[in-house]
Write a structure and sequence with these properties.
single chain, 313 residues, alpha/beta, Alpha-Beta Plaits, Rossmann fold, 7-stranded mixed β-sheet, 10 helices, 14 strands, globular
Length: 313
């Protein structure tokens, strides 16, 4: 079957907004091609050997957000509608540059779509000991490495985005052997997997999206961590008996603000609440919500325009 690939040229800051528009238009998922993600994560950790130089050379100068649409979704109409929705954004003062916001289309075969994106996903070291390795790649770990085998699927992230990598660095700092962890809005399950690899004895990965739950469960099985990680479809706030030493939520600022107060009821004494997905401009709102809920900020990380906060009640 022929699919239509729609690509939007934007910036690192504009990628999330563009991704949302593509998803609203019916895409199962999006892929972001961003040279900054590759350069910032690998250069910092001295992991240049993990990058395929030919792949790096092929990455576009612009940030490209792309999505695929089946014929029955009428891609031509989607493209026209998307162009119309992007046009007003060029004139808005949003506090950051959205880039060109031009739209390209290409017809691809099913097998091309399924495989071509994998060339951009290589083993990546995060923090001191965590390594994310695609299920189709091989990696020789160093002593003390915790290797997470991942197949995120077309609809889920690979763990290299700043918001996710900062959460993993926070988990590396706070997870202790035998502790418990809840990953709220687990997506591919990568944060629950990281917690388990770092020594958590019990981890709950929970998400409202059934597709995310399916992928997370597959990744848990792939890493042979079914005895440690429970994957659940639902809302944490409805699971009254669930408590943990660490709660991690890599979502968006508005949800973090909403979740801050009720999350306290799911934390064990002296627990830690790790929240990410916070654009820097929204950090004061999150800090205010945490303060009102009775938290004290324990550790703050920032990468680019994104912030990750660890707080104690």
């Amino acid at each position: 079957m022929e699919w239509t690939k729609i690509q939007v040229h934007t910036t690192t800051m504009g990628a999330d907004l563009v991704s949302n528009l593509l998803m609203e238009a019916g895409a199962m998922g999006t892929q972001v091609l961003d040279r900054y993600d590759v350069l910032s994560s690998d250069k910092r950790d001295g992991m240049w050997d993990m990058i395929d130089e030919h792949v790096l050379a092929d990455l576009p100068e612009d940030v490209i957000v792309e999505a695929y649409y089946a014929p029955e979704l009428h891609p031509a109409e989607i493209c026209a509608s998307l162009t119309e929705r992007l046009l007003p954004l060029k004139g808005l003062s949003m506090g950051f540059d959205m880039g060109a916001l031009t739209v390209d289309t290409e017809t691809v075969q099913d097998e091309d779509w399924a495989e071509n994106w994998k060339q951009y996903y290589k083993p990546t070291r995060i923090g001191q000991s965590l390594v994310i390795c695609p299920s189709w790649e091989t990696f020789e770990p160093k002593p003390g490495d915790h290797v997470i085998q991942m197949d995120p699927g077309m609809a889920f992230g690979t763990g290299t985005h700043e918001t996710t990598s900062m959460c993993m660095e926070q988990l590396e700092h706070y997870i202790t052997p035998g502790c418990s962890c809840i990953d709220v809005g687990c997506g591919s399950g990568i944060l629950a997997l990281a917690a388990a690899e770092l020594g958590a004895k019990d981890a709950l990965a929970i998400d409202l999206d059934p597709d995310a739950v399916k992928v997370a469960a597959e990744n848990v099985e792939r890493n042979h961590l079914g005895g440690t990680i429970r994957v659940m479809h639902g809302d944490l706030l409805e699971q009254q008996d669930e408590k943990a030493d660490v709660i991690v939520a890599n979502i968006i600022a508005d949800v973090v603000c909403f979740l801050a107060a009720p999350a306290k009821h799911h934390l064990n004494p002296n627990g830690i609440f790790i929240c990410s997905g916070i654009i820097r401009e929204r950090e004061p709102d999150v800090q205010n919500a945490l303060d009102k809920a009775g938290y004290t900020i324990d550790r703050r990380l920032q990468k680019g325009e994104w912030v990750c906060i660890a707080a104690r009640p």
